Amino acid sequence: MNNRVAVPVLCLTAVVVPVLGLITAVSVITDLRGAGSGAAAAAAAPPTIDYSSPATSTLPTTVYLTIVTGAQTGKDNYPAYVPSSVTIPAHSKVTFVITNFDDATPLQAALFAKVTGTVGNTMSVTPIDPANPNAPGQATTVSQVDPNDVGHTFTAPGLGNLNIPVPGHAQVSFTVETGAAGTFDWNCFDPCGTGPDGTSGPMVTTGYMQGTITVT
Q: Are residues 150 and 108 in contact, defined by beta-carbon separation less than 8 angstroms?
């Protein structure tokens, strides 16, 4: 007579199921630990600004300013930037276009003849004929201007040490990369105003040769 004893299949199942449950539990714990480490690493990473992506703000990323003469403002020796105050988006690339109908006033401080605070510390300059402004000359890219050819400056030290020497009878364009929100004063440092040294009148009057740039 054969004395072999058959082993019930259910016994094998009873052993395997708890083991599988243990494997699954270990896997879940490992995944959770991995997710926690990834979240901590992401939180520790410094924020970055992608200037290649379009700004999500509804504020303009191109700003147009015009420098008008005292004859145009109706006040002798009172040239003005129009508009004198602008609002631009934070963490964005913003292009400024300044058209100057005024003539040159030699700079007293040559350091303001250099372009600073723009992308590449350069700007584009296009000469214009005030009598025929829609027929501009050839544009060139420069990093500074002859101090004797500067008509005005657009200088905002708080905005990345921005300084733009604007030649007389010319249009300039340049791009800045903005950072966090804030309000920054700008001034013209070319002596284009009244008084013995040309530093009075419009030079110290908001709405003429000084104003604000609001980054928001």
A: no
Quick one: 187 exposed, middle or buried, by C-beta within 10 A (0-12, 13-18, 19+)?
middle
Query: Which tokens in the block code for residue 166?
Result: 């604007």
> Omega before 147 cis (within 30°)?
no
User: 134 with 178, same domain?
Assistant: yes
Residues for the chain: how many in total? 216
Q: Find out whether 152 and 102 touch, Cβ atoms under 8 Å.
A: yes
The sign of the dihedral angle between the CA atoms of 42, 94, 119, 189 is negative
Instruction: Summarize pLDDT for 62-97 with one digit per residue, the tens.
Output: 999 999 999 999 999 999 999 999 999 999 999 999
What tens digit of pLDDT does each residue of 148-175 get?
999 999 999 999 999 999 999 999 999 9
- 81 & 153 share domain: yes
Let me know whether 108 and 189 are in one domain: yes
pTM, two decimals, is 0.74
Question: How many Cβ atoms sit within 10 Å of the Cβ of residue 15?
Answer: 9
Same domain, yes or no, for 124 and 98? yes
Spatial CB neighbours of 143, under 8 Å, sequence gap ≥ 6: 114, 115, 121, 122
Q: Is residue 50 part of a domain?
A: no
* Whole-number Å distance between alpha carbons of 89 and 60: 7
- Number of domains, the chain: 2
| 127: alpha, beta or left? (left if phi > 0; alpha if psi -120 to 50) | beta
Range of the domain at 17: 8-44
